[in-house]
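TL;DR need structure tokens for one chain.
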Amino acid sequence: MALAMHKESLSNKQMDSSKYVRYTPEQVEALERVYSECPKPSSLRRQQLIRECPILSNIEPKQIKVWFQNRRCREKQRKEASRLQTVNRKLTAMNKLLMEENDRLQKQVSHLVYENGYMRQQVQTASVTTTDNNSCESVVMSGQHQRQQNPTPQHPQRDANNPAGLLAIAEETLAEFLSKATGTAVDWVQMIGMKPGPDSIGIVAVSRNCSGLAARACGLVSLEPTKVAEILKDRPSWFRDCRCVDVLSIIPTGNGGTIELIYMQTYAPTTLAAARDFWTLRYSTSLEDGSLVICERSLTSSTGGPTGPPTSSFVRAEMLPSGFLIRPCEGGGSIIHIVDHVDLDVWSVPEVLRPLYESSKILAQKVTIAALRHIRQIAQETSGEIQYGGGRQPAVLRTFSQRLCRGFNDAVNGFMDDGWSLMGGDGVEDVTIMINSSPGKFLGSQYNTFPSFGGGVLCAKASMLLQNVPPALLVRFLREHRSEWADYGVDTYSAACLKASPYAVPCTRPGGFPCSQVILPLAHTVEHEELLEVVRLEGHAFTPEDVALARDMYLLQLCSGIDENAVDACAQLVFAPIDESFADDAPLLPSGFRVIPLYPKTVTDGPGATRTLDLASTLEVGPGSNRTAGDGQPNNYNLRSVLTIAFQFTFENHLRDNVAAMARQYVRSVVGSVQRVAMAISPSRLSSDMGLKPLPGSPEALTLARWICRSYRAHTGGELLRVDSQAGDALLKQLWHHSDAIMCCSLKTNASPVFTFANQVGLDMLETTLVALQDIMLDKILDEAGRKILCSEFSKIMQQGFAYLPAGICVSSMGRPVSYEQAIAWKVLDDDGVNHCLALMFINWSFV
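>> reply
TL;DR here they are.
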């Protein structure tokens, strides 16, 4: 009986401790203070809380624990509800946007159906009533003229000082812009890969059958319309090819808007074409529904209004009615419609470069999509969705990116008003040398942070045409395998300009020192289409005289366009030396590469064309050139791109000629390296015959294959390959296609082992190519355990000839972990029995 009563008492206590407790406001306030400091307190912390807060003394520790659990659950539910509300608002706005787009497309279809019927009726009527070909042609042409060609109405010349005349132009521009943004004035075709969605960049389309180039985009951002308008008006902040925007006059209008007369200069993308400028009228106003409109067009004699004076270094381009429609969104945010419509005067550029000035897709990537991405980036930075390391503010990092791009564009263009002048050549015009004895004009206040020296800045630049080389793939290779083209001595000289006592003589050495790079991410844009990073160049010295020069250096690097799925995107790699302090106002002298795709309508190359083409024979300027009868064959590969290289160096006046000779020689060596890389990574060359080429600095591939197989048989007693013929061709072919990863590395006592050969599977495992293989050190791909095992077995390998290594993990050149079940290492002997290299075979490997 007593035992039963004791059990009942314990049961009642357990029920009391587990039933609901009503907390007083004071108790809740005390618990909330602790929760704000530590949402998940430990058992000791909860007991301490009960002791320190008398108002909680009547609460059991278990109840305190339950309160914190419930509080964390409520916080999680609140965040999830807020996220779902945000997604719902985006989906609602996107649904509205898509419905409007659907209505616009239906109107466009109706218009085309009506136009098609009208043209058929006119043609049939003309064919019945007359047999005159000229009459029939005139009827057809009259129907075609009704197609959208964006005719610009002719207006009498209007007085620049007459606000009424300018307002009339502004209202006409507004009407034409709105007809393109939301109407059917232009036949828009959606770009491939630009699917709408709450997290997508937006709906992007380009024009078809339209005069000039035109692109259109619409999307959602979480910024208010006034903030969006402020950002979009600051064109140099998001349009990387914009050199300057000068507002020469501001005229307020009676409806609360403003009219601005603007002169804008843009950079040329390559050294082979002139830059463009625009003389425009920009009209900012608001509509009855609360939407903001910023529309713009060029002022010419045909449109009316004042015409700006021409500039000697620029070609005047025309901006047809373009602009931004910014509509407020329910629940906050904005819906943005962007239209860019320009005529870049394509006939003034060499024929080979005309695709750059004829592609609406390139306009969409460089201008329209860039504007949307920039606004979206700022919106996410404002909301705190993007976290940056290194303690840098997003605005500072954006400024670094802008300065790198601007400095590289200044170097490529070399404007005379910035102080650039052409330097005489050496008789070969493949590399252009320009000097600037007053670099403060283009470096601005940043020049003051450079160490004082009596000289200036020298730029060596060149352009070349590439065929069958994807721009994204080439730039990614240049970024990840710097030692394939860069010279450590030149990098050392470039970095010396940041020191108080720069080197007096350029220290270039063929091949430089052994050098490896470490890429440290700094920032990236929302869709990772642009990467800002710090590159540490680690120098390795193996002789006493090299120790003073072999040191670590740092580069600030901007990489963009390396996504192979991007359509008509320019790929670019720009870098500038920095010191270890890396202040926000650090001086930057950018150099780098830019690769722009070209898609000509016909192909002028024969079947035997090489991967790099000479531009000298294709730089005719005019309406067209004669082509051979065999041009434009469908089997000719037509993936072309233009590569622009520019390197900048500081110099002292008494060493100007020496620096110029060094720069010219260096750019030529870089061009040669890029040509070799282009040949290696070209998709049409990624075949087994790549492995049949002799390797630099090693015996012929056939001989090496024989040494590898013979040494394996001698040391292990087994056969590496199963071949009936002992011919070298058969051995090499079997070795190249072996199912396991086989690779060779150097055996030097004074240097780290470097890979010299790998079969196809080995290249796949290392995620590299034969060209870049010699940039990879053995100790860089092995983890710590693998290095220890190899070191412990190395003496056994040298004495016995081989060793079996246990399963482990290694790392590819791209940083991906690779697991393998077993590895075999053996030394490869040449015909004289001398150690030639170390061979490794990784069995049953796979990416983790």
